[in-house]
Design brief:
It is a single chain. The chain is mainly α. The protein is about 70% helix and about 0% strand.
Length: about 130
């Protein structure tokens, strides 16, 4: 993760320098906000990557003497089928349409969205981990 931390750190520095130049020359609030948020997002990813590197050390991908077998085995649990993403998308669509057609549709959409998110979060809550 060290190379990713350096990569996103460089991206964050680029956005910081660009933001400073934009503030100096343009003084336009929307561009300043966009560049500041871009700097902050790149900084968060760089910080996360650096902390992961410090906690877990080097990965096999980071070493030139690593073997393919070092990354073999089970990766993670991936659910095969779920209806909850469709319910969540339908709820978000109802909320967005409610902004146009009325508050009652927003309330219905929030209910459907809440059911979808609840289902996504707790779908595999009883599953035993390996």
């Amino acid at each position: 993760m060290k190379s990713e931390a350096y990569l996103f750190g460089g991206v964050a520095v680029f956005f910081l320098v660009t933001d400073a130049a934009y503030i100096w020359f343009a003084r336009e609030p929307a561009g300043i906000a966009a560049l500041t948020v871009s700097f902050l997002m790149a900084s968060v990813i760089a910080f996360f990557s650096w902390i992961n590197h410090r906690r877990k050390g080097m990965r096999p991908e980071d070493r030139s003497d690593a073997e393919i077998q070092e990354r073999s085995g089970r990766v993670d649990f991936f659910p095969p089928h779920s209806r909850h993403p469709v319910v969540t998308a339908a709820g978000a669509t109802l909320v967005a349409n409610g902004l146009v057609y009325g508050d009652w549709l927003i309330l219905v959409g929030l209910g459907v969205l809440g059911l979808g998110v609840f289902g996504l979060v707790f779908q595999y809550a009883g599953r035993e981990s390996d």
